[in-house]
Amino acid sequence: MVSKDGFVSVVADRDDKGVLVVRARDREALERLLKRAAPLMEEGPGAIEDSATTDYRRVRLPRSVAREAIAGMVADISYDNVKTAVSRSRGARYRAVLARAWAVFLDLQEPRAEGDGVRKNGAPNRRRR
Q: Contact, 60 vs 13, CB < 8 A?
């Protein structure tokens, strides 16, 4: 999920099906999520795990807490352009990194039936071939 708070992915914990593991490349995305999770937990959220042997930073949350915290992120969406919102919330550097990721994901987009290679606004797609 990409929001103004950052980019996170969510997977089930291998050992505890009642827990979801929220992963991010940067601490701030997880810190922002933990601010939402903290009021939902009696003991407070777990610590951010940061290991040299894994490719993500991660936090483990009970499924119900993860669901509510992420639902809160969704409920707070008032922006109509995530790139602009990310720039305002996380800064130009973070937006630039996400823009590179979006450019890669463009390769997954299927061609449009009409005007293949052209966006809805008429600008050419920068699809790499």
A: yes
The answer to whether residue 101 is domain-embedded is no
In angstroms, the CA 75 to CA 88 distance is: 18
What is the residue-wise DSSP string for the chain? -EETTEE-EEEE-SS-TTEEEEEESSHHHHHHHHHHHGGG-SS-PPPPB--TTSSSEEEEEEHHHHHHHHHHHHHT---S-HHHHHHHHH-HHHHHHHHHHHHHHGGGSPPPSSSTTB-TTSPBP----
Bridge-partner residues for 9, per DSSP? 23
Total structural domains in the chain?
1
Residue 122 pLDDT greater than 60, yes or no: no
Q: What is the pTM of this model?
A: 0.78
Q: Mean per-residue pLDDT for 8-13?
A: 96
Q: What pLDDT is stored for residue 55 in this prediction?
A: 83
Token pair in block for residue 78: 């008032």
Q: Give CA 78 to chain center in angstroms.
A: 16
Quick check: is 129 in a domain?
no
